[in-house]
């Protein structure tokens, strides 16, 4: 058994890191918010949580995305979605700024990958692909992972910490994994910033993942065990948590354009509004080691897409250093 490790943050990245590291280390997670909490100060419970590969990704980022997909794909096959919240669904992805589908890096990763004919595209879209993908319901998945970790002996401490020294004092550990998301700003990274998102939960039997990218960012994400879908999306510089009523109508119009008016009869007065803040960072995802601190944050709206790949990289960074000692 390796030396003990502390992880700051109990969002999807912190939990994923704990799942990987707890196989060889005694792990303590310190976080203000824990799975099951629904405060707006953390992002993981509110994410759209779809496995949607990021097409503009470096080789190392692609590697992390591949590893994360494999984890969720395996989980979906070994655990019922009513427990894990992880569900395999058909995905349709449209682009209005992309014409070279042959160059998409994840064409060999996603099962049942196929390029759409031009006749299958919505108006103003230039290309599209279909494949099998994964939807995650954070309301189920986060507590599921926490339960698995507690069985392994991972300790959860509810506390907001303001320094790595405080973490070490509380846990007696040397190595600290910083998976604090937006909280990384308080720990010294001034490039971290919250990104406001607004979505809607709609009761429906619609059971396909659909997304459009380019000049707009629109999606429909069915949620396992919820009886409905998450509709979005939008990114904004606003920092308030008030629902933008006009935006609701705009989201619904955009969703109907990519689903052949599947939600034409939806009454916006009956939907559940969701406003939350994603952990953005100037410079993007940060996964690196500085001394005895391993940083793992900054994925913005792609936290679930990267989560277990980031966790694997965190493990590599820790084990590489141990091998040199």
Automatic annotation (TrEMBL):
<feature type="binding site">
    <location>
        <position position="161"/>
    </location>
    <ligand>
        <name>FAD</name>
    </ligand>
</feature>
<feature type="domain" description="FAD dependent oxidoreductase">
    <location>
        <begin position="5"/>
        <end position="315"/>
    </location>
</feature>
<keyword id="KW-0285">Flavoprotein</keyword>
<keyword id="KW-0274">FAD</keyword>
<feature type="binding site">
    <location>
        <position position="219"/>
    </location>
    <ligand>
        <name>D-dopa</name>
    </ligand>
</feature>
<feature type="binding site">
    <location>
        <position position="301"/>
    </location>
    <ligand>
        <name>D-dopa</name>
    </ligand>
</feature>
<dbReference type="GO" id="GO:0005737">
    <property type="term" value="C:cytoplasm"/>
</dbReference>
<feature type="binding site">
    <location>
        <position position="278"/>
    </location>
    <ligand>
        <name>D-dopa</name>
    </ligand>
</feature>
<dbReference type="Pfam" id="PF01266">
    <property type="entry name" value="DAO"/>
</dbReference>
<protein>
    <submittedName>
        <fullName>FAD dependent oxidoreductase</fullName>
    </submittedName>
</protein>
<dbReference type="GO" id="GO:0071949">
    <property type="term" value="F:FAD binding"/>
</dbReference>
<keyword id="KW-0560">Oxidoreductase</keyword>
<dbReference type="InterPro" id="IPR006181">
    <property type="entry name" value="D-amino_acid_oxidase_CS"/>
</dbReference>
<dbReference type="InterPro" id="IPR006076">
    <property type="entry name" value="FAD-dep_OxRdtase"/>
</dbReference>
<comment type="similarity">
    <text>Belongs to the DAMOX/DASOX family.</text>
</comment>
<dbReference type="GO" id="GO:0019478">
    <property type="term" value="P:D-amino acid catabolic process"/>
</dbReference>
<dbReference type="InterPro" id="IPR023209">
    <property type="entry name" value="DAO"/>
</dbReference>
<dbReference type="GO" id="GO:0003884">
    <property type="term" value="F:D-amino-acid oxidase activity"/>
</dbReference>
